[in-house]
Amino acid sequence: MADKNTYENLQAYRPETDWLYGLKDDKDNVILPPTYETIAEFSDGLARVEKDDKYGFIDKNGKVVTPVEWDDAKDFSNGLAMVEKDQKCGFVDKTGKIAIPLEWDHAESFRDGYAFVMKNGEEFLIDKTGKIWEAPAK
Question: What distance in Å separates the CA atoms of residue 92 and residue 90, rounded to the nearest whole number?
């Protein structure tokens, strides 16, 4: 039996003869042929995908929103997704544009409009524009 995971009216599927996942709609129409090693659940209308140990994002039509080029990525939250490349973290928006530059050593997903980030061992709270709202107490 083929491996399936359901996401709203879409299914990530993997044929028995393949190791890659694709997308089908609820009528079993192929939206995206098997292309990715993983397809995460849709979040904010986009799904994180993985291929060859790199990550990117696709929309519900299977269209690539951000190329599969990131060393790590987290699901979209509050309209932004954390991405990492060359051990630096930042955030992309839902068009794939870098919204907050990759300058952080560590970053968490946004919740209620804010994200925790770390640089040189110091933790900060930033908003969706990248503005620092809270610095650690000294």
Answer: 7
